[in-house]
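Our consortium's second objective concerns turning raw sequence data into structural hypotheses that experimental partners can test. To show how far this objective has progressed, the report includes one record in full. It was chosen at random from the queue rather than selected for favorable results. The single chain below, 106 residues long, was entered without modification.
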Amino acid sequence: MTTATKTQGNRKDADFAAEIEGLRKDFEALAERFTTISDAGVRSARDYTREKAAAALDKGEGVYSELSARTSELEQQAADQIRRHPLQALGIAAGVGFLAALLTRR
C-alpha cells in the first residue's frame, strides 16, 4: 500500500470512529430523555391515581353518611309503627316467621 492509501484508510477509520462516538453520545442523550419522560409519566400517573382515589374516598364517605342517615330514619319509622300498632307488628312478625319456616323446610 502506498502512503496516500494508508492516509485515506486512517482518515476513513478516524471519520468512522468519530461518527460512532457521535452516535454513542446521541444514544446516551436519547436514553436520558426517555428516562426523564418515563419518570414524568410515572409521577403524573401516580398523582392522577392519588387524586382519583381521594375523590372516590370522599364520594364513598358521602354515600356511607347518606345510607347511615337513611337507615337510622327507617329504623325510627319502624319503631314508631310498632309502638302505634303492636298487634299488627306481632301478626306481621309471626307471618314472616311462618313463611321462613316453610321455605327452610324444603
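The partners drew two points from this record. The two ends are 106 Å apart (CA to CA). The mean pLDDT is 86. Both points have been shared with the crystallography group to help prioritize constructs.
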